[in-house]
Amino acid sequence: MMKTTLLIAALASTLSVTANAATYAYISSPGDGLISQYRLDQNNGALTLIEQVQAGDQVNPMALTPDGKVLFAALRVKPFQVVGYRIDPTSGHLTKFTQAPLAESMAYLSTDRKGRYLLAASYGADTLSVQKIGEDHLPSADILRYPTGLHAHSIRTEPSNRFAYAGNLGTDKVLQYRLDAKTGELSPIGSGSVSVPEKTGPRHLAFSPDGKFLYVVGEMSGTVTAFSIDETSGALTQIAEANGIPQRLKLAHGEVRDARNNDLKDDPTPRIWAADLRMSPDGKLLLMSERTSSSVSAFAVAPASGGLKFLDNYPVQEQQPRNIAFSPDGHWLLVTGEKSAKVGTYAVSKDGALKRVGEAASGKGALWIEILQTPDA
Questions:
Q1: Closest to 354 measured CA to CA, from 322, 318, 320
Q2: pLDDT digits over 224-253, tens only?
Q3: Concatenated DSSP letters for 318-335?
Q4: How far is CA 199 from the centre of its chain?
Q5: Which residue, among 292, 264, 263, 287, has the nearest Cα to 276 in the 3D structure?
Q6: Which candidate, 313, 324, 307, 305, places its Cα nearest to that of 242?
Q7: What's the pLDDT tens digit per position in 239-295?
């Protein structure tokens, strides 16, 4: 009888926590300088626009602190700055509290897993940067800078927070570093990088939940490359690769793009232009966005070996989808389109199949998505 009572009490407690949890999505739109706050109903995938705040011209990449208390957003116009917003723990409302310099125009922003450092990658300036985040969540004006090869496109630390990796699109390399927890300094692991085939274009990164594997999307190849992470040194070893572009899409190999030819206006050939890569919370599914075909590709992940298998490719209504993001429970996927007036929600099946179930108005050129689960009022 006692066991039954305890079980019922535990179940009631779990249901209460679930019922009181609110899921918010924050989406930046550089075309109008807005950060839009949405509420996601995890029961049915419904998406509701709550409010929009004026962040600044060309607001682009964002990063949530691990404690869920602050959202950082980078402005990609001079003077390059990061804006900090405190997040109300019940309503999710954003309140600006700080603004600090950035090293360059940043295409990617993240924090380390402890929330002590702000990491950034500059595509145009071929640079990575690290700056300390104070106990009051204030980013330091002292910035560590690390030159890279052409077009640095991402930087993240793995779950143990000892190592950092960066996609270097123009050199077809994935950069590998050890992170000094006390200073934030990055030091190369081995030669400092591993190479992928020419014109792969390493872009965004995703890690397995246990931190044993790293996955990298190739912007120009539409492939996902899997690497094992040496537990002691952090060195990467390629273990698998899967192509996410089926022949029916009729896409030619991609080309390097920059501010001068981002839309390849003088090239009428439809080309691969992969963008984001996201791992499901259970570590069994990877999803990749592809902009030219306005679609999302799904890959099965073998958690034990890190292996990959292409499942299928699914069209989405959002035109030129750049960022995608799983809900905390993995049941829903948010999709933004740089040329779409709506942000969509899709139900995600176990095999990666997508079914659109909700939408809400987006800002102009919506792209970056950060999702937060916080207790409701």
A1: 318
A2: 999 999 999 999 999 999 999 999 999 999
A3: SSSEEEEEE-TTSSEEEE
A4: 22
A5: 287
A6: 307
A7: 999 999 999 999 999 999 877 677 777 788 999 999 999 999 999 999 999 999 999
- The identity of residue 213, as a single letter, is F
Q: Is 4 domain-assigned?
A: no
- The domain tally of the chain equals 1
Instruction: Kindly compute the dihedral angle of the four CA atoms of residues 106, 112, 115, 120, in this order, to the nearest 10 degrees.
Output: -10
pLDDT, tens digit, 9 for 90 and up, residues 97-124: 999 999 999 999 999 999 999 999 999 9
Sign of CA dihedral 318, 64, 277, 352: negative
Q: Quick check: is 181 in a domain? A: yes
| Amino acid identity for residue 259 in this structure | A
Please tell me whether residue 78 adopts helix, strand or coil conformation: coil
User: Which 8-state DSSP code applies to residue 252?
Assistant: B
Give yes or no for a contact between 54 and 31, defined as CB atoms under 8 angstroms apart: no
β pairing state of 152-157 and 139-147: unpaired
Give the CA dihedral 280, 317, 347, 253, nearest 10 degrees: -30
How is 1-59 classified by DSSP, letter by letter? -HHHHHHHHHHHHHHHHHHTEEEEEEEEETTTTEEEEEEE-TTT--EEEEEEEE--TTE
Count the neighbouring beta carbons within 10 Å of the beta carbon of residue 377: 9
In a domain, 163, yes or no: yes
Tell which residue, 341, 353, 257, 244, has the closest CA to residue 297: 244
Q: Which residue has the tokens 């390399």?
A: 173
Residues 119 and 157 sit within 8 Å (Cβ to Cβ):
yes
Q: What single-letter amino acid sits at 252?
A: A
Give the residue numbers spanning the domain of 296.
23-375
Strands (E) across 158-307 are located at: 163-168, 173-179, 186-195, 202-207, 213-218, 223-229, 236-243, 274-279, 285-290, 295-301
What CATH number is given to the structural domain containing 303? 2.130.10.10
Helix, strand or coil, per DSSP, at residue 91: coil
What's the rounded Cα separation, in Å, for the pair 250 and 156?
33
Q: How many helices (H) and strands (E) does the chain have?
A: 1, 28
In-domain check, residue 12: no
